[in-house]
Amino acid sequence: MKLESVGILISMQPFGERDSIARIFTRDYGVLAGMLRGAQVAKKNKPLTGQVGSLSWNARLDSQLGVFHWEASRNLAAPLMSDVGALSFMNSAFALLVALLPEREKYDALWSRTNDMLDSLVLPTTDSKLSTPPRGGVGLPVSGVYSPPGGSRRAKRCGGGQQSINYLSWEIDLLRELGYALDLTRCSNGYNGEHATSINNHGNPTIEDMLIVGESIRIPQKRGREIILNIKEKCSGIALV
Fold this sequence. Notes:
Number of helices: 6
Low-confidence stretches: 125-159
Oligomer: single chain
Order of helices and strands: EEEEEHHHHHH
Structural class: alpha+beta
Helix content: 25-40%
Strand order of the largest sheet: 3-2-1-4-5
Shape: elongated
Radius of gyration: 25 Å
Number of domains: 3
């Protein structure tokens, strides 16, 4: 049996004095596990975690561990050695893929998103693909990130704000692929179970918009206007910071 694809080397464990058991996240077969012969003693083209390349997996039977032939084209980890935060994001992503993904299950969308996330760590940009909402879910807008006291210092140590956003967005995609689809638009206390971003489909609502919404939940216009004016009066003395 022979499988061929391209992938990312996400894990290596020593096996004996010369070989290693590797796990590679592939485009066509998901995570594959196999033996890398002579990986520990190789002096040329040494396999390293974080490499991207082409592979072939060979085994006599489908149930066997199999042996890899690995040809690396580039190393994602090398440019990150001077960025502790970005390197920790990459290692965390690889650990989650190894621990959570079943072997030989294809994940097209997750493969693409993983490549985008890793590229954003190597070449961070504010226009990253991951800052836009993925299909069937919600992205993480830059303006919506909570920044606690000292947050800017932490962000600097942990790879920067945009890198953090890209990584968290990737984690949400991973959970969605595993069946834990998180809909961050839902809110049990919100109007119709949603976070309110508009009133009566208007982002800058008027009193009339509020009255229309009130009528939809059986609040007469006269009572609705009294409520609005009462709230306006009570909030008039509050200073907005």
